[in-house]
Amino acid sequence: MPLKLDCYLPDYPARTPTPALVLAHGGVFHRGSKEADAFSAGVGTNTSIAEYCRRFAELGVAAFSVQYRLAQTDPEPSPNPVLTRPDEVPMSRVSALRAEMGLPSIKPSEMARFMEAAFEDVAEAVRWVKAHHQDFGIDPRNIVLGGYSSGGRSACYVAYGKGVEVAGVVTISGPLMPVDVKAYLAARQDLPLPPLLMISAEHDLDYVTAFVPEVEQQFRMAVRPVEWAQVPGANHFYSSDSPTRDGRTVFDVIRDSVASWFGLPLKNVGS
Which of 5, 125, 161, 192 is most buried per CB count within 10 Å? Predict the structure, then answer.
């Protein structure tokens, strides 16, 4: 299956190479696409990754929306798995969605195989963007990796598990498993790691609510750069315009973090 991505470039030419974002869509590794991953659970609808890409392109940042293999394609096992405990991957949302889609139940180890395939694809997307940076006029040293839900989880595992070098990681309601964080931080205690921005909702999925504060604590204890922003009153499906606890919108929080990592005022990137 060929890997595909969509590129969103600024309308105006930049005098110097621009920074870039590589974003992966959500969908519990079972649905969604690089073009459309806006879902709802009756209350609220999340902003699609494609829309995030469009908005960042308007700020002068090249953005890439990545497609990865879904569970239904029955992907081959990854040659380089990074989940330290595949039998413990959270299954609550997976089980509910598979029942909704009329698919049979699966074991955590099977789900882990599907996740690892997505991680491989997202990692390959980052490598491809870096290899073709001159074609898009971007700075390969200034690439931020991120995504929503399963896409955010993929971004985290690519950066911290596979060690693909990026300037920062943004995960929207898609955290690492704390047991994996512990292993990755221990293995890389003398190596640089990209800063992490986590966003979650007050009433998010059970494992998101449980994992995010623990991951933040582990990063802080290891003296690694991390930020956590929470959307009060929301469930897993919230928009980029949703206010966080400090009053900034979700998009503003992401923009501010990305701008600080790039060391650039995003509204003036292309000037």
Answer: 125
Q: Give the CA distances from residue 98 to residues 31, 87, 94, 101, 104, in Å, rounded to whole numbers and listed in that order.
A: 10, 18, 6, 5, 7
Nearest CA among 51, 19, 61 for reference residue 166? 19
> DSSP class of residue 232?
T
Q: Which residue carries 């694809």 as its tokens?
A: 121
Give the sign of the dihedral formed by CA 176, CA 180, CA 181, CA 184: negative
Instruction: Please compute Rg for the chain using Cα positions.
Output: 17
Tokens 């047991």, located at residue: 179
Closest CA to 207 of 155, 268, 266, 153: 153
Helix (H, G, I), strand (E, B) or coil at 171: strand
Closest CA to 171 of 40, 35, 41, 23: 23
Per-residue pLDDT of the chain (271 residues; tens, 9 = 90+): 678 999 999 987 777 899 999 999 999 999 999 999 999 987 899 999 999 999 999 999 999 999 999 999 999 989 999 999 999 999 999 999 999 999 999 999 999 999 999 999 999 999 999 999 999 999 999 999 999 999 999 999 999 999 999 999 999 999 999 999 999 999 999 999 999 999 999 999 999 999 999 999 999 999 999 999 999 999 999 999 999 999 999 999 999 999 999 987 776 444 3
Report the greatest alpha carbon distance in the chain. Answer: 53
Q: How many residues does the chain have?
A: 271
Establish how many alpha carbons lie within 13 A of residue 155's alpha carbon, considering only the half-sphere containing its beta carbon.
35
Q: Provide the CATH topology of domain 5-268.
A: Rossmann fold (3.40.50)
